[in-house]
Write a structure and sequence with these properties.
binds zinc ion; RaSEA; TIM Barrel; iron-sulfur cluster binding; rSAM_sf; 13 helices; 386 residues; eight-stranded mixed β-sheet
Length: 386
């Protein structure tokens, strides 16, 4: 296979490609938040039950409306489009705090173990969540009955100062930080995801979290842009193994959906990307169970359901077996019984295997760098618009 797992052989060329990918990604993005959206109410809030590690816990899940991800470079990520364009509509720290307060009024009596605070960006980036708002939220979390606070951030925003700030207020309660590594391959992260996360920044953030007795929740992709399903399987299995060797278990696998206003949507439109088959997800789970039996990966189910992602193309098999296959993956998430996956079969699997073979003989023979170069060549922006 021509797909190089780790190597960045030509860093200068890669840097130029990343510059162009970033321009393209940022140029396509559009905030979908309505002009008249309230700045003092969160985007959503609900109480439910989720798996934390291997335990089902009660959760309060809040999505705050905050300024867009400071990076916003990833080719597939829809989240920056679901945040505020603060250049057009600035938001004050007290408005962010007010969003939080509006759903934490009953927190003294409410019974939940886990408080999840999503921002569709980076909780530790001061430009997105001001320090005064973070401090305010830490204080209310400490007073609540919840034991765990889960937030998300790119690793470069996790600093010693930010960890001290959290520790000083929340004390012995646990902070969990969700961080997208996406892939353990340097080349894949660099040009097929175009993320700002590096292996170094990820490992440094993980070491800091451990030092403060906090926890990490690592996210990996199944099928980054420009990859074939075969390559996606190899990429995910190796990435799970890499995390496991670092000491990180329970990675969260996010199979790629094609969301609007992303570079990936453009690739998809041109017939250069298809969402992963569910068979590919099954194969990742089977192979990683054999290779890293104690890694315990889980798949994000909400990304696989069309009804939760009406504007997107979601990973799928054929119309007949998609729903039951997603249900089987969900059951596997809950009890880790491989039988749910082993017993799956349907005639579309033949088509899947044939398609993979064709892909291997065509796209699979072109080095990843060349695939991305060719795409960029086609979408070169006129200099004056840059
Ligand atoms: Zn089928």
């Amino acid at each position: 296979m021509k797909y190089n797992y780790d190597d960045i052989k030509n860093p200068e060329k890669i840097a130029l490609m990343r510059r162009d990918l970033t321009r393209l990604a940022r140029g396509i993005r559009v905030s979908t938040i309505p002009e008249d959206a309230s700045l003092t109410a969160p985007q959503s809030a609900r109480d439910d039950h989720v798996l934390l590690g291997d335990k089902m816990v009660k959760r309060r899940r809040i999505v705050l409306l905050t300024p867009m991800c400071s990076a916003a470079t990833c080719l597939m990520c829809p989240l920056p489009n679901e945040a505020l364009d603060s250049k057009r509509r600035p938001i004050m720290p007290e408005e962010i705090s007010a969003q939080f307060d509006s759903v934490m009024k009953d927190a003294d009596d409410a019974d939940f173990d886990l408080l999840t605070l999503y921002t569709n960006g980076n909780f530790f980036a001061d430009a997105e969540v001001p320090p005064v708002s973070r401090e305010h939220m830490y204080k209310l979390f400490r007073q609540s009955k919840a034991k765990f606070l889960l937030v998300e951030s790119l690793p470069q925003f996790l600093t010693r100062e930010k960890m001290e700030e959290a520790k000083n207020i929340i004390g012995n309660k646990k902070l969990i930080v969700a961080i997208g590594l996406q892939s353990a391959s340097d080349l894949t992260r660099a040009i097929s995801v175009n993320t700002t996360t590096t292996r170094e920044s990820f490992e440094r953030a993980y070491a800091l979290l451990k030092e403060f007795d906090f926890m990490i929740q690592a996210f990996l992709m199944i099928k980054p842009p420009f990859l074939t399903d075969d390559e996606a399987i190899e990429d995910a299995v190796k990435s799970i193994q890499y995390l496991h060797e670092l000491g990180i278990q329970n990675p969260i696998l996010c199979a790629t959906r094609v969301a609007p206003n992303t570079v990936l949507a453009l690739l998809n439109k041109e017939g250069k990307f298809r969402t992963p088959w569910l068979w590919t997800i099954i194969e990742v789970l089977k192979r990683s169970a054999a290779q890293s039996p104690n890694a315990f990966p889980r798949v994000v189910i909400s990304e696989l359901r069309k009804e939760s992602n009406a504007d997107s193309e979601v990973p799928k098999n054929c119309d007949v077996c998609s729903t039951r296959t997603v249900d089987a993956i969900e059951r596997f998430n809950e009890d880790r019984n491989m039988e749910h996956l082993m017993s799956l079969d349907h005639e579309c699997k033949e088509k899947y295997l044939k398609e993979k073979e064709e892909e291997y003989n065509t796209v699979g023979q072109i080095p990843l760098e060349d695939r991305v170069s060719e795409f960029l060549e086609k979408h070169r922006l006129p200099e004056k618009t840059i």
